[in-house]
Amino acid sequence: MAHSLFGPSKDEIWQQIADDIGGEFIDNGFWKKDDLRYAHKEWELLLDTFTRSHGKTSSTYTRLRVPFINKDGLQFKIYREGFFTKIGKFFGMQDIDVRDPRFNEGFVIQGNNPQKIRQLLNDYKLKALFEMVPKSNVEIKKDEGWFGKTYPEGVNVLYFECMGTLKNKETLKLLFQLFTLLLDRLVHIDSAYDDDPRLTL
């Protein structure tokens, strides 16, 4: 009955995506989180959900993560333009011009090496994927903060999150495509090694 009222469950959809892309959906039972793992070359991408507390309430988020060996310490955050980011830009928030007016208009691009980030985004397919993912919010993280994982020296994580449980099949498939192309581009611009980071999330 629940299926007909609310459509397929997250588990059903994530299992279908795993089948479609050649990944593995792991049902960890009631007490542990389920996740979807996908291997691209030497990297393992991990899709899961987590809960973040806001005092008396909490919210569920969907995230996609992949550890990689960061060759030159490149850091960036690329996310969709919104009302608050427009205010931030007005008050001087750092924003990198990637010399593409349309992409610059739609996204806030921040990072520690503007030249490398321009090189990274100098790819039509990569920018198209960013535009096709409705909730694009991607960054490189050194670790996951006080309550998360601490990564070994030189290992960072390419990271996406959005509020809610993401169940749109096309969006999720595009997200995996975005991450695999980002990894390949990071190697291409000499900012990542295409080696196994030897870190399992």
Write a brief structural summary:
The protein has 7 helices and 9 strands; from the N terminus they run ααβββββααβααββαβ. With 201 residues, it is of the alpha+beta class. It has one domain.
How would you describe the overall organization of this protein?
The chain has one domain. Helix 6 runs antiparallel to helix 7. It is an alpha+beta fold and 201 residues long. The longest helix is centred in the C-terminal third of the chain and has 20 residues. Strands 1, 2, 3, 4, 5, 6, 7, 8 and 9 form a 9-stranded antiparallel β-sheet that branches. It is built from 7 helices and 9 strands.
Principal-axes shape call: globular
What is the arithmetic mean of pLDDT? Answer: 88
| Low-pLDDT ranges | none
Gyration radius, to the nearest Å? 17 Å
Query: What percentage of the residues does DSSP assign to strands (E)?
Result: 25-35%
> Given the helix and strand composition, which structural class is it?
alpha+beta
Give the total of beta strands.
9
Total DSSP helices: 7
Q: Give the H and E element order.
A: HHEEEEEHHEHHEEHE
Largest sheet: 9 strands, antiparallel
Distance between the termini: 35 Å
Say what oligomer this is.
Answer: single chain
Query: How many structural domains can be distinguished in the coordinates?
Result: 1
**Approximate helicity band:** 25-40%
